[in-house]
Amino acid sequence: MNRDWTPLPLAYLALAIAGLVGTWTFNALAIIQLRDYLGDLVTSGPAVSSITVDLLVVAVAGCVFIVVEARRLGMRRAWLYIVLSGLTAFAFTFPLFLAMRQRRLTVLARIPGSAPMTG
Question: pTM for the complete prediction?
């Protein structure tokens, strides 16, 4: 195993896989049942609408964090995590980004004088 894969990025990677499998299981059910996906999100009652808004705000904040943190650490192609979240799920791409971020921090910690910029 690569020494950049410490327990923390592996935990984030496990969460990313759980997020992908969990969300796509329900996405597949919605497709099979010919459900109005967006309609179900906003019209299935106040509780579902609350969760939808809650997760949307967290996803937007997470996207901002991805861009800012990737720039700070010199990570390339951070925009891919955001694009992939629209194709897969933010529950997959955000923990995946956190895993890659932690690996980057591990690499930077081994390089003398390469402490990440603080913002």
Answer: 0.85
